[in-house]
Amino acid sequence: MKTVNTQIKRALSLAVLALVLVLNAGVAKANNKKKIDEKKSIELRYVGSVNQMPVLEVAYDNEAGEDLNITLRDTEGNVLYTGNFSDKKIVKRFQFDNSGNDDIKIKLTVSSKKNAQTEIFQIKRSSQVVEAVTIAKL
Fold first, then answer.
1. pLDDT, block means (10 residues), the chain with 138 residues
2. Which of 27, 29, 106, 109 has a beta carbon 3.0–4.6 Å from 118's, enabling a disulfide?
């Protein structure tokens, strides 16, 4: 009787183990698929100022090396810049004439033959004066 129970337990455990392995393999295959439709983000960052005018850097990863068109527009739709690129890493710096303290709003579009991606950025300027005093004992 014990040998029959042992054989049944062994057969059931092998069946459960095989089932678990088959199910895990299916999940592993499903997770290996890359998301092709995933949006690449356009990076815009502040890198400093020259003559009291802000300088911004636009960065975009073009892993496929496609021909891309980058266009910068203001809120009224006026084209500030347009350029064609086919580099794998696109980095471009722009200086904006903002003599007042008004916010800058720009519409940045990256387009290829297949699709276009548009993002709107708002740049706010604020100034702070910091006075540092150091006292040293001689």
1. 64 60 54 46 84 86 87 88 90 81 82 84 78 84
2. 109
